[in-house]
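HUMAN:
Sorry, I am quite new to this. Are you able to go through these amino acid letters and fold codes? The numbers rather puzzle me.
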Amino acid sequence: AWSSSPVALGDGEVPPLGGETSASAPLTPAPSPACDRTSELGSCSKYAEDARDCAPTTDWSVDSCVQHADSASSAGEPWISAYYACVNGVADDVERPYAVPSARRGKARFLELLHEMEIRDGPRVTPEETSEAAALGVSPLDWEEDDASIDAAASAYLGAIGNDADERNDEDASKRTSDARTNSNDEPYVWAFVHVPKSAGSYVTEVFRAHIWRLRERGDEALARRARVAARVRARRNARANDASELSRRALLDDSGVVGENSASNDYDDAYANASTNVAAASLGGASWSAYLSTNGFVFDDGLFHPLYSGMSYAPVMDLTEPRFRDAFQFYRGAFDDAPNDWYRPGAGAAANQNSPLGMARSFHAGRREIFKGSLAMGFCDAVRAPCGYVTVLRDPIERLLSHHAYSCAAGAEDQAGWTAEMRLKGSCDLDPASYFEQMGGVDVSVQLLAPRANPASRCALEQAKRNLRRPCVRFLLQERLRDGIGKLSATIPGFAGLDEDPPESFLNAPAMGADVGMLTSKNQVAGRLSDAQEARLERWRRDEDVMRRLRALAHREIELYDFATSEYDKQWVNSGSSVGSC
């Protein structure tokens, strides 16, 4: 029941009962986005159905709601309440939804450093290289490679020392420089996972956790092989240098007419072969490759890569949820280099390297990626100083709302966080789904999270949410086609290669930062939380045409967004690998 299982991925869910309840059956046709006024750039600056002008922002590092929430909290308002008020458009006199930039942002300093690394140390670790390394094994007995294999690996992966000094020429150097420039595209190093509640987010987070673990494990194997190859190349070079000295000595002796038995040359092939055990001493391009390697099979030695985590709940995925959002946002935008003392520290590296272009480029070069998970993640790419993209999961709005109602109202999950004070006194939430959301609100959550800093009920926010889904650096999955989406991410984006595989055994068995096996199998379902009577009542409401009609009326904007997403879903994968870009 891991990631390859149709049931675990959502393809095996029971279809809706009681007639059409899904987004395919909207109450009324979607309204036409009539525009009263256009901007100089040709975009709509005032939609007819909105009371306020529409003026999207494209720089979340400046216009994020963090500054507003900081100011409000200093006046006594709870920080997260002020942040969400800003997300909902309260902070402005116009609608200012965040617009994912249409032009690629390559994060120049990151790419410059990566380019230098690829010339000096060889190309970034790729899925193809990790497959080669995995096939060779990881124990010392598996390290035997013949000379042809060593030479091929050195030429392909070791950059400036990939060939013996006396064999390199200007053409080789020129080719390495050209290859590095070709490879230095802006595939994201960071992925900001925008978690829409009750849309398989917790399960997908667990799939992402397994994948980050997988990338680090496989990358470490590839780097260990590079270290072994580098050691043998250096040993052969040193042996040849010793041979040259010996030959020079012999020439001098010949001139004097004295040649002895001890003038035989060194056998550099023996030194070359024996050097495979000298991994710890191997160095490449001035950097110690042994430092890249894991110290054991459970907690990675992240000294050069990612020594800090904002919380244990999702590590090795970074926690960007509400309690951790502000600190993570400010740390990665470089507002401070000293991470909060309560962050989890499995590695021994300098925290300042983790959020810097140098540290992130080094980690990317080693085959790693980073994923940040949280409902407030949209706009985070403007803060992080590395190529970055967005990924999210959308769900049929009616199914999502029914699930949300069952979880928050009927089950009273998360300490009855979705109950009113009256419900807590009564000890139950007995409202039908339509009545619950009519009273509690929170219907337009997909629009709210995909286009923050505008009234989510506005046409301006809805149209911007659609545009954001179409940006090259955004990928969205549909819960109803979750296995397909995970497979397409794996097949089209190098950093997600292997995402559709079963979780690594080491991840499942790890005592720290390891798998939540229950989440991988149950997907955080409500099943088991409700009594038989509650289940029966929920089913009656699902079959109630009046309840469903009212629910569709409440969710008409979400339905329009979802219909748009389903129409665009297949288009986003065309030429995906070459066009993903960076936000």
